[in-house]
């Protein structure tokens, strides 16, 4: 049984490896053997269980709520509605517009309406069914292309438009192109599909506050939203990161946080809240569905002259991060190419569909899909090899983006594409059924099977853009335990499976030369670390830990210099020793620390950025850029529409591979999520706004039989502004994997296939028509 006490004990990493080594993860063995404490495993004596009553309608007015029958059930301790919210009634990442519990209206299927706490989960669920809500159903508005039309019912208190992003670069009206292609593309609503459902344990504190152990991506942003809803000062709300079973953006927004804490404070006892898989589909935001129109103009020899694009993202019922997602989508509409003229309009709108927000790639996935699809269409119109068209227009250092910012770091687009082009193609499929579309289903023995090869490249900013003052804080303490120097690291960095805990230990070992490092649990008792998102966490937490360590290292070398008479500049730290320039030990680190401790807290900030001009979209908005490219090889049974991805090769610049094994894992994981979006993953919402497939039975994700060989070419072009020259790794693979697969399918079938995900009938029916 996992207890809170077992969670908060620090996990020692053992002998720490240094930066650049494939260090084993300290949590790896526990996770694969089932001993790791995820948030859903938490238990404490005297706790009760909570559940949520959710709306069956996508749009309805609430006339009344009767909780009396639920309260009368044996084992039920509390039933709460919006009237019981002790503080602010709403919260939100960018705008505090999402109700803690629905007040007088529900705006999406699954919106929380009431809470129940009971002795056990089943009693709570059965009691929730006894709550009587008198709804007046309204006609839901579910088509994002119509919500801005005159006469459409206002969905959101602020209207139906979340944000309109305009980018004007060069002079599209005067740009002269020999060849023009247009295309309309659509991307469906993808779920993060993390394996660990939302869960948390709230414990009332003696000072009238509350402690929350919760799976999250950003503890301090959670605190910022949570405390006002509880009517408590921030110092009385303490959050500790519980074991996170994946995130990918789906844990940036609040889920169980306010509800569990409300009940704990009301009852004066611990409250556990853990979603099942069905509820998880309603308990977090999803990737924005997108409808996009692209127009590319080029010269006869394939030089891009201009790009015009219009994007509409469905933000669902509430704001979440939609204003930033649509901005990010627009920033990279023209892809990893040199485009002298651009006219870009991006709109995020409200609908009565489920709320959408952060997901790996954060808007750039949608725009990369549209751009790369239209680039292949342009290559076909020019009669040019698609990879040659990309090479001819590849972004380089110094390229000016549509936002007017020049790329001042590495931009190895050509190198990535060339590496993929030069890689040998996999052999033709044999007679083994598992190597053919349909696999063991024995649908084909090779007849009707065609092979296609497709390329795509993606670019995305790393970190927060648009003038955000990003920060990450780390406290490093060096002490002697049993004669051995031990460094402890304390940050609020959320370990979501990406390996930031391991990297913190590697940085500490490298900078202080110590072999023993302890990474303490992340919580809000230390300064903000920002979100585990935007491919920023390794960059930012490394900067913070490195800064704290270097301050301690200077102090140790000062002490060693005083003791040895050697200048500090002639000394270094390694293997728990102070070494001279010849590598000979001068003294032990343990002797320098003694019975004292050496400690430093460091706040790291990246270089400043600017907001973009609202009329032109111009501004130096980004700190850095990351690039990835994919080559997909697919076999397609055109008669049945079945697809086998034979190989999905990646080339990516990572700046510095801090942990090469972990980097490869991130690239493989991102590529598989892109494969899912290309071929199977989509939350289906009907005309009434109801989610039709909230389960892993009906929401399909790739299995081991769907995942092909994924050879990876790692490039290390150091970034001039980052610690160790590193760059973000997690998001870029999701940008180019989806369009590479669809481009390969188009090559194999000759069909336009404008929508992602593609389904068998999209191929089979079109091929047979």
UniProtKB/TrEMBL annotation:
Q: Which GO terms describe its molecular function?
A: xanthine dehydrogenase activity
Mind telling me which InterPro entries this protein's record contains? Answer: Ald_Oxase/Xan_DH_a/b, Ald_Oxase/Xan_DH_a/b_sf, Ald_Oxase/xanthine_DH-like, AldOxase/xan_DH_MoCoBD1, AldOxase/xan_DH_MoCoBD2, AldOxase/xan_DH_Mopterin-bd_sf, Xanthine_dehydrogenase_dsu
SUPFAM superfamilies assigned to the protein according to its UniProt record, in alphabetical order: CO dehydrogenase molybdoprotein N-domain-like, Molybdenum cofactor-binding domain
Q: Which domain of life is it from?
A: Bacteria
Q: What class of enzyme is it?
A: oxidoreductase
Entry EC no(s) = 1.17.1.4
Where is the secretion signal located? none
Q: Name one Pfam family in it.
A: Ald_Xan_dh_C
Q: Does the keyword ATP-binding apply?
A: no
* Stated name of the protein: Xanthine dehydrogenase subunit D
* Originating species: Amycolatopsis silviterrae
Give the lineage: Bacteria, Bacillati, Actinomycetota, Actinomycetes, Pseudonocardiales
Gene symbol here is: pucD
């Amino acid at each position: 049984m996992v207890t809170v006490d077992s969670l908060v004990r620090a996990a020692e990493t053992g002998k720490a490896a240094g930066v650049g080594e494939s260090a084993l993860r300290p949590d790896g063995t526990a996770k694969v053997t089932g001993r790791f404490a995820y948030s859903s495993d938490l238990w404490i004596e005297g706790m009760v269980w909570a559940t949520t009553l959710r709306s069956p309608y996508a749009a309805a007015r609430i006339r009344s709520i009767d909780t009396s029958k639920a309260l009368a059930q044996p084992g039920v301790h509390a039933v709460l509605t919006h009237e019981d919210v002790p503080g602010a009634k709403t919260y939100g990442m960018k705008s505090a517009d999402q109700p803690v519990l629905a007040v007088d209206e529900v705006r999406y299927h699954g919106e929380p309406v009431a809470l129940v706490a009971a002795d056990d989960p089943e009693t709570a669920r059965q009691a929730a069914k006894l709550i009587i809500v008198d709804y007046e159903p309204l006609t839901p508005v579910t088509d994002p292309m119509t919500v801005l039309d005159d006469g459409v019912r206002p969905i959101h208190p602020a209207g139906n438009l979340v944000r309109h992003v305009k980018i004007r670069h060069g002079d599209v009206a005067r740009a002269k192109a020999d060849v023009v292609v247009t295309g309309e593309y659509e991307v469906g609503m993808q779920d993060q599909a993390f394996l660990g459902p939302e869960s948390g344990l709230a414990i009332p504190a003696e000072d009238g506050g509350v402690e929350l152990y919760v799976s999250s991506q950003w503890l301090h942003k959670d605190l910022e939203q949570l405390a006002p809803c509880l009517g408590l000062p921030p110092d009385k709300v303490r959050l500790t990161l519980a074991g996170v079973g994946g995130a990918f953006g789906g844990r940036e927004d609040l889920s169980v946080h306010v509800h569990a804490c409300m009940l704990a404070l009301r009852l004066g006892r611990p409250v556990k809240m853990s979603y099942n898989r069905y509820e998880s589909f309603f308990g977090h935001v999803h990737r924005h569905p997108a409808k996009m129109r692209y127009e590319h103009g080029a010269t006869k020899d394939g030089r891009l002259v201009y790009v015009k694009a219009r994007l509409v993202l469905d933000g669902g019922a509430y704001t979440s991060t939609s204003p930033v997602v649509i901005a990010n989508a627009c920033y990279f509409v023209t892809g990893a190419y040199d485009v002298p003229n651009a006219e870009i309009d991006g709109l995020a709108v409200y609908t009565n569909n489920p709320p959408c927000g952060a997901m790996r790639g954060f808007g750039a996935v949608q725009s990369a899909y549209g751009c790369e699809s239209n680039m292949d269409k342009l290559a076909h119109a020019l009669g040019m090899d698609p990879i040659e068209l990309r090479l001819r227009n590849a972004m380089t250092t110094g390229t000016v983006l549509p936002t007017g910012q020049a790329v001042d770091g590495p931009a190895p687009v050509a190198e990535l594409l060339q590496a993929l082009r030069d890689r040998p193609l996999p052999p033709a499929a044999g007679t083994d059924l598992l190597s053919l579309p349909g696999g063991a289903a024995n649908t084909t023995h090779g007849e009707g099977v065609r092979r296609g090869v497709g390329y795509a490249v993606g670019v995305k900013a790393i970190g927060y853009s648009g003038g955000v003052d990003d920060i990450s804080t780390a406290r490093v303490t060096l002490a002697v335990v049993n004669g051995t120097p031990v460094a402890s690291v304390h940050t609020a960095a959320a370990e979501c499976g990406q390996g930031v805990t391991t990297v913190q230990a590697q940085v500490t070992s490298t900078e202080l030369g110590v072999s023993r490092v302890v990474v303490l649990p992340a919580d809000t008792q230390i300064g903000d670390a920002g979100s585990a998102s935007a491919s920023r966490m390794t960059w930012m937490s490394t900067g913070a830990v490195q800064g704290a360590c270097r301050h301690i290292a200077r102090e140790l070398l000062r002490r060693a210099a005083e003791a040895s008479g050697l200048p500090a500049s002639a000394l270094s730290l390694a293997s728990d020793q102070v070494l001279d320039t010849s590598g000979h030990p001068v003294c032990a680190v343990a002797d320098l620390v003694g019975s004292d401790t050496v400690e430093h807290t460091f706040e790291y900030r990246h270089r400043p950025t600017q907001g973009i001009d609202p009329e032109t979209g111009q501004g130096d908005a980004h700190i850095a850029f990351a690039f990835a490219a994919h080559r997909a090889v697919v076999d397609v049974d055109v008669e049945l529409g079945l697809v086998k991805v034979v190989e999905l090769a990646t080339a990516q610049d990572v700046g510095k591979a801090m942990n090469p094994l972990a980097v490869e894992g991130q690239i493989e994981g991102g590529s598989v999520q892109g494969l899912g979006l290309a071929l199977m993953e989509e939350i289906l919402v009907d005309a009434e706004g109801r989610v039709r497939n909230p389960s892993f039975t009906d929401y399909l994700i790739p299995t081991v039989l769907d995942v092909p060989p994924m050879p990876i070419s790692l490039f290390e072009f150091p970034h001039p502004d980052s610690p160790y020259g590193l760059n973000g790794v997690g998001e870029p693979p999701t940008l180019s994997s989806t369009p590479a697969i669809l481009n390969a399918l188009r090559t194999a079938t000759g069909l336009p296939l404008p929508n992602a995900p593609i389904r068998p009938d999209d191929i089979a029916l079109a091929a047979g028509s």
